[in-house]
Amino acid sequence: MAIKVALAGATGYAGTELTRLLYCHPDIELVSLAAGRREGEKLVVINPQFHGLRYEAFIGLEDLLATEAELIFLALPHGHAMEIVPNLLAAGRRVIDLSADYRLQDVQTFAAWYGKEHCGSEALAQAVYGLPELQDVDWATVRLVANPGCYPTAILLGLAPFLQAGLVKTEGIIVDAKSGVSGAGRSPKLEMLYSEVNENVRAYGVGGVHRHLPEIEQEVSRWTGLDCTITFTPHLIPMTRGILATIYLTPNHTIGTADALQVLERFYQGCPFVHVLPPGSLPNTKAVFGSNHCQLGAVVDGRTGRLIVISVIDNLGKGAAGQAVQNMNLMCGWPEEMGLATPGLFP
Amino acid sequence: MAIKVALAGATGYAGTELTRLLYCHPDIELVSLAAGRREGEKLVVINPQFHGLRYEAFIGLEDLLATEAELIFLALPHGHAMEIVPNLLAAGRRVIDLSADYRLQDVQTFAAWYGKEHCGSEALAQAVYGLPELQDVDWATVRLVANPGCYPTAILLGLAPFLQAGLVKTEGIIVDAKSGVSGAGRSPKLEMLYSEVNENVRAYGVGGVHRHLPEIEQEVSRWTGLDCTITFTPHLIPMTRGILATIYLTPNHTIGTADALQVLERFYQGCPFVHVLPPGSLPNTKAVFGSNHCQLGAVVDGRTGRLIVISVIDNLGKGAAGQAVQNMNLMCGWPEEMGLATPGLFP
Amino acid sequence: MAIKVALAGATGYAGTELTRLLYCHPDIELVSLAAGRREGEKLVVINPQFHGLRYEAFIGLEDLLATEAELIFLALPHGHAMEIVPNLLAAGRRVIDLSADYRLQDVQTFAAWYGKEHCGSEALAQAVYGLPELQDVDWATVRLVANPGCYPTAILLGLAPFLQAGLVKTEGIIVDAKSGVSGAGRSPKLEMLYSEVNENVRAYGVGGVHRHLPEIEQEVSRWTGLDCTITFTPHLIPMTRGILATIYLTPNHTIGTADALQVLERFYQGCPFVHVLPPGSLPNTKAVFGSNHCQLGAVVDGRTGRLIVISVIDNLGKGAAGQAVQNMNLMCGWPEEMGLATPGLFP
Amino acid sequence: MAIKVALAGATGYAGTELTRLLYCHPDIELVSLAAGRREGEKLVVINPQFHGLRYEAFIGLEDLLATEAELIFLALPHGHAMEIVPNLLAAGRRVIDLSADYRLQDVQTFAAWYGKEHCGSEALAQAVYGLPELQDVDWATVRLVANPGCYPTAILLGLAPFLQAGLVKTEGIIVDAKSGVSGAGRSPKLEMLYSEVNENVRAYGVGGVHRHLPEIEQEVSRWTGLDCTITFTPHLIPMTRGILATIYLTPNHTIGTADALQVLERFYQGCPFVHVLPPGSLPNTKAVFGSNHCQLGAVVDGRTGRLIVISVIDNLGKGAAGQAVQNMNLMCGWPEEMGLATPGLFP
Asked: Which residues, other chains included, contact A89 with Cβ-Cβ below 8 Å and sequence gap of 6+?
């Protein structure tokens, strides 16, 4: 029998993609859409692609508890989920939170990187970091998922297998990532105008200041037991969706490209959403556009010995809404691919 | 029980989109992919988004008859389908042809606009023009569908209701259409290079020479019984997918915007893929991106009396692959929306 | 000897392009940049392409009169120029206003279309509409130029020669225009975000409500003595710069494409910025990108008899800043092309 | 008195930009345009932005010697210049070659990376690597300039000052570069079609195989006397023009961002085309679009100690045609900025 779900934050880009995926999912009933600032407005005015669907007006966040939803997705700006998650859990609802609020287990780290005290930390102990390929939890028992950030998803999937295998040094890791601009959200900002973004590329958050860094390092440590401090440079490029992370690693011993690819293939055997490309092929973001897939490639530079790993995802798919649905499937005991089987949309 | 289907021409843009839709369709089994020039090559080399699917190598066109496919989609360049369709039909296969080969009922018109004699005209009598919203055929009996062109789909959906209602003059119709460039196909041409298309807009086929014109006028005549000669100007704009047609009509009598919208709403009542926007809203192509939907808007210009109708589709969705699947659903007696329920992908 | 000029509104898109052109002009001295809301801020923070230039901080609008500038460009939002133009003129300064404030000679028309009373109408009698190719004024005497809108520039250049020649009907004129989004200005709006504009096309201002309409009709009347009411549909397409106007005309008598092109060639003989393409060639916006040029093409549709004229400009070049410099050159008695000789930037 | 120049290879992207710059240059006379495969064709058919210029038909390469040109620009595909340069020099012409033919001083290195023997190596001894900011030659005596590649220009400008200052290690240098696609040239290739490039990013030439590597390492060695082996990963992003290089360096001692910026500022004092941004500012490619400028920024990562340098250029400007004009200015004893003073075109 279909379970009932609700979604709060349906007007942002991640929430919009989640609305689409939930609408197409065969085994759920989407009972309500909530929006913070746009309560009472009509879905189709803001997102006309949903013309013909029946969810006409958004309810307010405070009305979520009054719905019959057993599972609630929160796609709100950082800092809002922590105000309501403890209550939702106390009322027996399961929660998948797409914001950063429950990703960092240490409240001081959270305060340092997000600039505010955590006001819902009593729920932190229940929070499970929802990157299923790097998660061994008993999903049936999970009540609260902290859905990963888009950069951490792309980077951890390319990085963790090599660290876990002890094949590369923990020092000197450099990650250079390129992202479409939808990750910056849907609020009007001068630097996100079409005329500013088009035909332009720029780095931002350079020098170890991007908020996704502590999340990446925490999860490396949790999964592999290793501590590492990563140099991470995100870039905005003129496209809407997609992240490509170029990861520079230093092997402990001389290895070849085939060795590196074998490590990835073994690690992701049986994972329906992570594909390792054959030698000579390198991933491009368009191959995962609109999907929940990740594609990985690797090359060892014969001149310098570096291992270069390339990881691509759709930042709104595997980097946000798709992964949230994947987490729901696992929590509900359904096949991981339910509602997510579509390949990338091309061209 | 799932029926078996095959697809020839899986490497072009329409064929690629069709591969995706057929892969996701719940009630068919895609048994073979054929390619003319790329026989033996691997699908994932050309279309890496399908990494992980099992159709590894393309069969040749001549191998289609040897497959178990009951229904065969042809997404070949114009002029190729007519060479094999009669044989496929004779062998009891049903065919949905995405090319122009069976769209024009008059072989002289075909020869005049496509520059070659029709070599498979014995099948023309069986061909059904596959624009379901303007088609009254008994679908169970259909053996051959001529899947419409992208421009005709967008234009006929906006135009036909007003002509049928006798509300507008048949003279002086002007259609100004804007299309993404994927409609021009996947063969390498200088004028389709990114650096030529980006930040550029141009008209082409100006002055009544675009091949979609006779198709539009034939279908207007078949559906409404009216003859009209249309001024049609297509434009290429810097985007991949999407068509927006702006249709300028001259009402027979003074009408208002509300009257015009009512005509559309009545006409498309019960049509799951065509949505009429409320007064004050006008469609944009992004709302139908990646979907089989069409959105329609209309405005009457109070200063000049003109009726302006705006129609948007995804040229690879409702304008090609999506419509082909819709036609298959009808031929098989399935719900029209099977495998096509997804709203537009946004952003 | 170089004349001294100042520019108010240097932070918007037209003002930014004007800053670039004035910086490169060989015969002027740019003494001050003024900005309304950003007084005191540094130019290079907002427009880093000017790093190395000496205009570091913006002065306020009220400081313009204290500068030595003999000629002042105003690139302010509509409604601001009319508050200061009378004072600037009274102080002996010459003014080129890029806003709409002095384009409409009738104050009631202005109030009806711009929603406010004209508070500087005493200067209207001095205002010269600055489309040089359609202007016979004695430029040496001009004190105030109303620099045309971008759509009117593209449309009038394609339309006026045929009306003046008496070759086409004044009724039933349809103009379908496609514009890059920089014309919408630089203030942050949701619908101008990259993720909303990219891979999207939409019409706006449909049904005779776009503010450029009265300006077009006024200038047709002033130049040709003919009254016409035009159906005008502007569209936003995913590019930054460029306008392509497709103009549909009804010839009074049967004419051919060659006849139409000859009308244009004669009209623009000796005009350095307007180029008529040969038969079979049609203009694209990229050919005029970053320049002050306009390219025109024409085709007569043999099936319907319609004359289709296509006009392209850069909306920030000939459609705004370039034309403003052209007007300055004429006012100063310099060669029209001074500082404007660069062809379009390609690719 | 203006000198006479000719240009061979006027139809490619670099040649097109060079045509524009030479047309606008105040002190030269462009006497002929030559094209290899398109001899006899008209310039404006291929590049309609030059409509109105007088160079109507291309001469053949073999006709170059018959022109009066004292200085000849060659913008031909790799491997063509070396066939004619010795003859041009013998005839007393000066040459600026935009291809790779005379960039590598070692003919075996050339053969290894470009896959063919050097057939014009007798001229190599005269070749001067034309990156003026890293070149101490007596320009008046230069007969042959090897105009640098686009990636080497961006990278060397960001890298050389720190190596020369002895501030960073020569080991472990990583360069991650992002380029617009015009650098891939104008010949029709599937992977350069708009529908393939748009909304896509991919790495290429990964693992030390890009042909610009030996050029970078040769010039580092020539200028600083240091040997280094660089890890270099170029990426193609969906834009036409622009390169952003992110350079990861390991300081020998702890330094701060201010120290790093001071090194750059001192190095580029007096260089009109290289701008060092203040602390907290990072360059974006749009600020140099259409110009001969380079902008540099730097940040030291306090967590890892890495120095991250970011360098942006227009690959067709400072990365090709603009730099060629800069080299001509130096060879002719003119001010370096002549004909190149325009800031970046924005937006």
From this structure: A95, A123, A126, A143, A144
Residues making up chain C, counted from first to last = 347
Whole-number percent of chain B with pLDDT over 90: 92
pTM for the structure as a whole:
0.97
Please report residues of D whose CB lies closer than 8 A to that of A241: 199
| Integer Cα distance of A293 and A277 in angstroms | 13
CATH of domain D151-315: 3.30.360.10
Query: What kind of architecture, by CATH, is found in domain B3-148+318-331?
Result: 3-Layer(aba) Sandwich (3.40)
Q: Strands of C231-236's sheet, edge to edge?
A: C202-203, C231-236, C174-179, C243-249, C307-313, C294-300, C274-276
A46 shares contact with chain C (CB less than 8 Å): no
Length of chain D: 347
Convert the pLDDT of each residue in A260-279 to its tens digit: 999 999 999 999 999 999 99
Closest by alpha carbon to C302, among C256, C252, C270, C267? C256
One-letter amino acid of A212: H
Whether residue C286 contacts residue C344, with contact meaning beta carbons closer than 8 Å, is answered with: yes
| pLDDT at residue D217, rounded to an integer | 98
What is the three-class DSSP state of A41?
coil
**Residue in the block written with tokens 């080969």:** B101
Q: Tell me phi and psi for residue B102, to 5 degrees.
A: -115, 20
Chain D residues with CB under 8 Å of A176 CB are 176, 233, 246, 248
Average pLDDT score, chain B: 96
pLDDT, tens digit (0-9, with 9 covering 90-100), for C164-206 = 999 999 999 999 999 999 999 999 999 999 999 999 999 999 9
In 3D space, the residue among B48, B119, B30 whose CA is nearest the CA of residue B82 turns out to be B119
Residues from chain B contacting residue A52 (CB–CB below 8 Å): 272, 275
pLDDT computed for residue B221 by the predictor: 97
Do C3-148+318-331 and C151-315 come out as alike in CATH topology?
no
Q: In which element (H, E) is residue B129 found? A: strand B127-129
Q: Does D336 touch chain C (CB under 8 A)?
A: no
The greatest distance separating any two alpha carbons of chain A, rounded to the nearest whole angstrom, comes to 63
| Residue C66: Cβ within 10 Å count | 10
Q: What is the ipTM of this complex?
A: 0.97
Q: By C-alpha distance, which of D129, D188, D150 is closest to D330?
A: D129
User: B189 — contact with chain D (CB < 8 Å)?
Assistant: yes
- How many whole angstroms from its chain centre is CA C48? 25
- Residue in A163, A141, A146, A6 with CA at minimum distance from that of residue A70: A6
* Segments making up each domain of chain B, as ranges: 3-148+318-331, 151-315
Question: Which residue of chain B has the CA closest to D11?
Answer: B190
